[in-house]
Specification:
The protein contains 3 helices and 11 strands, in the order H-E-E-E-E-E-E-E-E-E-E-E-H-H. It is mainly beta and 166 residues long.
């Protein structure tokens, strides 16, 4: 197993606004045309992919996007992805290889859900990949504020306080 510093250097990862480190590795050439039945604007890629690395002591803060996001586990410790659906249902996706404890090598966060992630069980780091379809665009990215999310989901106040920065 490589260290998180090795992965950041070898993969050329940079700081991500939500926390952690990333690098885009794929952006489909095929794009939406802007026809009347397209939900996404003309020029939006059909799919994108990134590497994402998160270290213990850091977290990916609650945010949401307009597309489905498929997560893939690569190396390190497991990753817990906290998901709050628009209607308020909560679930935690456990990304990793130890299926005996409920981890899965892949997990999906549906479009429009609020989600945040952290390294599982006080591990050192998690290296994962994220594939977004339709492709990721920062215009679809919304960082959740603590006040906003607590007003929407007061039942998850301790989790929201822990997984937001402001």
């Amino acid at each position: 197993m490589n260290s998180s510093a090795d992965w950041k250097r070898r993969l050329g990862l940079e700081a991500h606004p939500e926390g952690g480190f990333f690098r885009e590795t794929y952006r489909a050439d095929a794009c939406f045309t802007g026809m009347a039945d397209d939900v996404f604007p003309a020029g939006r890629s059909h799919s994108t992919a990134i590497y994402f690395l998160l270290e213990q002591g850091n977290f990916s803060a609650f945010h949401r996007i307009r597309s489905d996001e498929l997560w893939h586990y690569y190396d390190g410790d497991g990753l817990d992805i906290h998901v709050i659906e628009p209607g308020g249902a909560y679930r935690c996706l456990h990304l990793g290889l130890d299926v005996s404890i409920g981890q899965s090598p892949q997990a999906v966060v549906p479009a429009g859900c609020w989600f945040a992630s952290e390294v599982a069980d006080r591990g050192g780091f998690a290296l994962v990949g994220c594939t977004v379809s339709p492709g990721f665009d920062f215009t679809d990215f919304e960082m959740g504020s603590r006040k906003q999310l607590i007003s929407l989901f007061p039942q998850y106040q301790p989790l929201i306080r822990r997984m937001t920065r402001s």
